[in-house]
Amino acid sequence: MRRWGRAIALFLCVSLCWGFFTGGLGIPALAAVDETPTASEGSVTAPPPTNPATEDISAEKVNQFVHAYLQVLALVDAREGDLQAAETQLESMRLQQELEAEAFAIIEDSGLTLQEYLQLLGLANTDPEFGERVATQLQEPSR
After folding, report:
1. Enclosing domain of residue 65
2. Residue 31 neighbours by CB under 8 Å, 6+ apart
3. Looking at residues 6-15, what average pLDDT do you find?
4. Count of domains forming the chain
5. What's the gap between Cα 9 and its chain centre?
6. DSSP letters of 25-65?
7. Predicted confidence band at 90 (pLDDT cuts at 50, 70, 90)?
8. Taking 60 as the threshold, does the pLDDT of residue 42 lie above it?
9. 37-to-43, 69, 85, 134 alpha-carbon distances in Å
10. What is the SS3 assignment for 128?
11. Backbone angles phi, psi at 35, to 5 degrees
């Protein structure tokens, strides 16, 4: 279980740094935004984010998530040295964009959308029951 916590922390850190959660590649930011309407905006409010009930998430979706998660984690581990060795900010940004594109491809190849992947990642980190389901699959010897 200790590796799971480290892995989540590592991926969330990498994600935050590279813009997965800040709109880096045209993805809407998931950060809290003040939705208080101004007089000119009227009373428009964003719909609250919806998370599926954890018991409604199929074993296949959990398996897809775990498969993608492990591949993305391996990608980050493999490319970490390149990122640290980048000599300029431009080179670092180029490497980050390449890594993001590779991670997005891994996620989509697993059968998940980026939104689904991020939603499941968030649930694994915040919902103890779902986190246990994911941790159990992560510990299976076939991985």
Report:
1. 2-27+56-138
2. 21, 22
3. 48
4. 1
5. 11
6. TSPPP-S----PPPTTT-S--PPPP----GGGS-HHHHHHH
7. very high
8. no
9. 5, 38, 45, 39
10. helix
11. -100, 20
49 located within any domain: no
Q: Is the pTM of this model over 0.70?
A: no
Q: Structure tokens of 1?
A: 């279980």
Distances in whole angstroms, Cα of residue 55 to Cα of each of 51, 60, 67: 11, 13, 19
Task: With beta carbons less than 8 A apart as the criterion, state whether 83 and 99 touch.
Answer: yes
- Rounded average pLDDT over 80-91: 92
- What's residue 54's pLDDT? 80
Helices of type H across the chain: 2-18, 59-85, 89-109, 114-126, 128-138
Mean pLDDT across 40-48: 46
Question: Which one is predicted more confidently, 5 or 120?
Answer: 120
Separation between Cα atoms, residue 53 and residue 27, nearest integer Å: 24
